[in-house]
Amino acid sequence: MIRKIGYRRDYWLTLIIGSCLVVLVVLLGVSFFKAISDSDIKSRKEFLRKQTELAATEIEIAINRFEDDSRMLIDFLEDDDLDQEDYSYDLTKNARRIFHNYPGLIDTLWVNFQDSVNYFTLTERNDFIRGLYPNAPPLRDYRDFVHYLDGNQKFELTFLLNPVRFTKGFVTHYYLNNGGSKMLLLGGELINIDSHQIKSDLEIDKKSLKQINKDAAEGVIGVYEVKWRFDAESGNGVLVEYPFNFGKIYEELSLLFMVESNSITSGIYSTYLFLFSCFVFLLIGTVVFFALSLQNRLESQRLLEENANEISKLFDQQNILLRELRGFVFFHNYKGEITRVSDEVEDILGHPKSEFLEAFKREGGHKDAVSVKGLVKRALKENKSFINVEYDFEKPNGELVRLRIFEKLIFDKKGRFNGGLGICTDITDQYDSKLELIESGKRLQNLIDNIPDTIFTYDNSGQVLEAHAKDKGFLKAPDDSLVGKSLFDLVPAHQIDKTKFAFNLARETRQIQTVDLEIDTGMENTFFEVRFFPLDSKRMMSVFKDITSQRVWEKGLVEAMNAADQASRAKSEFLANMSHEIRTPMNGLLGIIDLLDQTTLDAEQTQYLEIIKNSGNSLLNIIKDILDYSKIEAGKIDIHSIIFCPAEELEKQVQIFFGLAQKKGVILQTSYDSLSGEMMEGDVEKINQIVLNLVGNAVKFTPKGGSVSIRLELENISGELYYMKCTVKDTGIGIPADQIPRLTDPFYQVESSSSRSYQGTGLGLAIAKKIVELMGGELTICSEMGQGAEFAFTVILKKAPELILSDPPTVDQNRVKWNGMADEYPLKILLAEDNDLNLQLMTLILDQLGYDFKVARDGNEVLDVLDRKDIDLILMDVQMPGLNGLEASKQIRQRGKKGDIFIIGLSANVFDEDQKKAYEAGMDDYLTKPIRLISLAEKLKEYAIKNDVRRKKSKSR
Length: 957
Ligand code: ADP
Hints:
This protein is of the alpha+beta class and 957 residues long. It is built from 22 helices and 33 strands.
């Protein structure tokens, strides 16, 4: 920027100086002109004066000669020797000579011989006439005459002269330029004697004229600058007055030459002005030229400087670049000798710079130098202007490098080879990676060639660009013939849409999209799993994988799965049946035990009864465990979430073991965190089942003096979800480390612990683990032999919505005496049971409770009884011959008002779905066998109350 301003300043400075120079030159020119015009005028005046003087002097001389000649004529006339004839002849001859010698001067010559007067004259037409006057001429009439008398006074010569004409003729050959005037001042009168200009009325200003007259009278030469006027014209002139003698006649005669001032200067002016103007124009031109060329020069200098900067910057950059590129620059002359090389050469080639230069100097030097020279020669032969080669070079240390030589060959204007400028770069790394690329390309090709799948590449519209099919039978066409076809023409019509969809989706999302196609390849229908994915922005690829055999296998698998499913269902059914079959006799057994318990027994009997009861209960538990596990295995377990308080619930479960713990002398303690007191939602029954199992085990495996501590914690996962963690820690016998992983296997018991002193099935932990996992948690076991054990489980719970809960109904914890409850809770009962043993047991139980009841042996009988009798509640066995319990319930419900009756189902089936079926059939409640006295009594009490309420309501209506 600063530089630019500098250039502009220089430019303006040049212009100003140039203009000043022009003005100066003009001033100088004008003053020079003035000087030369002054000197010219002076010299002109001088010249005019000289001319005038010359002319006047010549006239004087001529007049003097004329006077001499006149005297000579007198002398001739005085010659006495002449005879009359000669005399006359010679007189004429001499007279003529005088006439001719002074043309225009003599008007008439009178020769007065006393007696006669001869006269001679020259006419206008140059005829010389001699005449004779009888008397003397009337000379007084003439002003301009001279006369001569001889000494003897015999004759008299009288010349009548015309000085004006003579002078006029005489000065004709004096050239005065245009505008020159010649005059005579004769007796104070100005007479124009100009031959070609008839300026008879030429007037000179009075002042000058006066001076001229004065000077003429004094016989002084004068030079004047006068003003003249002629007719309408007027002007200035330079006038020279030269007084001269015109013989004896006119003593005051002046010759006046005048030139116009303009004519003096105009010549100078025009020539000078022309030259000067040319010069000034030349000068201005030069200045402008200079200014322009300066501007151009400055501009080009600026450009040059900019270019120089640019070049030096580029050079620096290039140097950096070269260093980065690992390269060096070199120049060589036409002989191939390196004249310059950059320092990096040593880095690249491993040879010192001097060695490198030397190698190219000698003829037949280093082999690589020779071959590079050879390359140049070949390029020249082939009329190339550059060389671009890659070259393997071995460094002195044995390292192999790949070089790229790029050289520009330089020629002069005449096309002669001058040398070369080249760059040599080490491209080993690029070369290696290029090789690697080629190799990996080959590997890829190998891979593709050996892939059993069929591979296509397409353009973005789906047109096949390349096809690779290992199995040439693919699509009934050789792979080459597929090129150029559209993918969508290759697939069967009904599959085009989904193919298009997958293809376009893969292209747009740039992610693999898979589609299954079924294509007729000639022999049979072949299944393909086709994966579409974009190769790059312009190309797509697909891999057709033949999955026909997989499909066949899958089909087999599905069939196998179906078979397994069927087997599993059979197993479940078997289990259900088994449970039913075992439970039925158990029902009788335990029922009787319950009945016995209600009778009065002695101490020994009570003890035996207690043992039978325990065994029965154990057996029932075992069956329950086996069933639980089978249910879980068969995936037939559901989660029933209810709202509960974890801390409260835990406390209740642990309470169950207080008695046992106390008996064993084991301390049982619980602790909770603050969140455990919140209301949560989850399958509390299943959680309780796990807690019971863990605490039960802990108490079981902890000897006297030990302790069992249970800790409950809740932790928020996110939002309303919580982890509940329950840890049961004991100081019991512990578990060997190697056995811990197997504890959750079904029926697994630790050898040492199963010394029969501990009862159990080995199913508890297996079930616990399954349930815990079902509820999103895990079961962890830590233990050391003899150091006690720590069992912990987590489950996911949901925080219960904030509800205003009414007080839970308080359960009468006092032992209820059920015998004869029918009086307090009357009900008209129908018992539907086909099994005799069960019928017996139920009869005993109901009798004990004090109820009178009707019996039906199947569903149809139930309906019959209902038609005849007034019944409040039916205890309905589900499995009955003929019309079973479910069907009978359905029919009862379909009867409308008469069907308004309570039905409690009885079944040995414990699966949830069995209960569900019962409710769906219209049953109000469900009891699983074996039917225990207390549970039946509680149910009857509940429905008796409901029945009472209903009755009262219908009565009030
Ligand atoms: P079981 O009905 O036999 O108790 P479990 O699955 O509950 O079945 O337990 C399997 C076995 O794990 C037990 O037989 C016992 O050997 C071992 N075990 C369980 N809990 C403990 C404990 N707290 N201390 C020592 N051993 C235990």
